[in-house]
Amino acid sequence: NLQESESENKLDGETASDSESRSEFGGSAPVPTSDDTPEVLNRALSNLSSRWKNWWVRGILTLAMITFFFIIIYLGPMVLMTIVMCVQIKCFHEIITIGYNVYHSYDLPWFRTLSWYFLLCVNYFFYGETVTDYFFTLVQREEPLRILSKYHRFISFALYLTGFCMFVLSLVKKHYRLQFYMFGWTHVTLLIVVTQSHLIIHNLFEGMIWFIVPISCVICNDIMAYMFGFFFGRTPLIKLSPKKTWEGFIGGFFATVLFGLLLSYIMSGYRCFTCPVEFNNDTNSFTVDCEPSELFQLQEYNIPLVLQSVVGWKTLRMYPFQIHSIALSTFASLIGPFGGFFASGFKRAFKIKDFANTIPGHGGIMDRFDCQYLMATFVNVYIASFIRGPNPSKLIQQFLTLRPDQQLHIFNTLKAHLVDKGMLGSLEEA
């Protein structure tokens, strides 16, 4: 009985020492993952040192990923949304697998099943909210979608409640604390991965430029920080990532700001990148076509007197979006890397090198998207705070779904308001 009591205290006690945590988590860390470099590359680079071999492997795979990125951009926003969904699932799988390797050693029930069930519930909630918000006319036109939209939040809550009850029923005596650790693990993973991946989709629907430029800035910063650090790095930046240097951090910042200005200038001239994704009732398809907003129309700006003598110009023509791109690239360079530092701390806590070995030389998908998720949240907040205003088309769509008497009431209210403002008379005269 005494041994049983001590064992239960070890599992369910309130202390939080590292030694106790190691005991609860199986007594050993998960086995570090290793990169599976293709045999072709191993043979081709066999004469190089490990440092230069890693440089070439990372470089070749980076070019391959950039090529794939260009291909999916060409295929359009719906394919991009599908890819984001696939990346989200893979990232979730990589993080949950780390927890499962710990949890599985105790042969406790339902952890993996419940984790994937909660992923399904959260995705159902977010995708339902997104479809209703951005494609309201499509939802109202189809009877099944209209019913699902009307009771969407109740259905989502009922699905989550089912999973919650399943978790409570799965609790096993002497392992309560570990099971609640894993319950929290799943929910934190959902918060980090699923929530932020849907913010990426929201950014995409605002216009592909809000999706491509931020992601490209993070990619550019990652590449240029690595290049500057590889060739010039001498001063360590942070203990969590010993290979990161101040030279790479600073060089990556300036290169990314310049890259963001150039990329945004090129993309601002194309409607397919600047227009939001909308559903066209006439063609029953998703379209990307509009009259460009002021953000994407060339404006003339006066150069400060201090700089006029240096550059030799008095004015400069540029897109207003380029000014916003400076904010995006600055965040990608100065704050975005902290997403990577956070991931490095997580991996060190569990003594693993990478989240997985999906991409040779780069680790898992989560190793490539740790900064992207933080960037996606910033872009969404930035759009909501400084860019997005009331959307007349969405108001009209909702107005047309009301009953005729409700439409008439709103019409009379709006008419009275315009008369009071003195605007209706001037419009009638015009």
Protein architecture, described:
This protein is mainly alpha-helical and 430 residues long. It has three domains: 46-75; 78-204, no CATH class; 207-352, no CATH class. It contains 20 helices and six strands. It has helices at 2-12, 18-24, 39-44, 50-75, 77-103, 111-134, 136-141, 143-150, 152-169, 176-205, 208-232, 246-267, 271-274, 305-311, 320-334, 337-349, 365-387, 392-400, 404-421, 423-429; strands spanning 236-238, 241-245, 278-280, 285-287, 299-302, 315-318. The strands form three sheets. A two-stranded antiparallel sheet has the order 1-2. The protein has a two-stranded antiparallel sheet with strand order 3-4. It is flat and about 80 Å long. Residues 1-35 have low confidence and may be disordered. InterPro entries: PC_trans, PC_Trfase_euk. Residues 7-23 have a biased composition (Basic and acidic residues). It comes from Psilopogon haemacephalus (coppersmith barbet). It holds the Pfam family CTP_transf_1.
For the largest beta-sheet, the strand count, sense and barrel status come to: 2 strands, antiparallel
Shape assignment? flat
Strand content: 5-15%
Q: Give the class from helix and strand content and strand pairing.
A: mainly alpha
Using the CA coordinates, give the radius of gyration.
26 Å
Distance between the termini: 92 Å
Region (Disordered): 1-38
Membrane topology: Multi-pass membrane protein
EC number: 2.7.7.41
Enzyme class: transferase
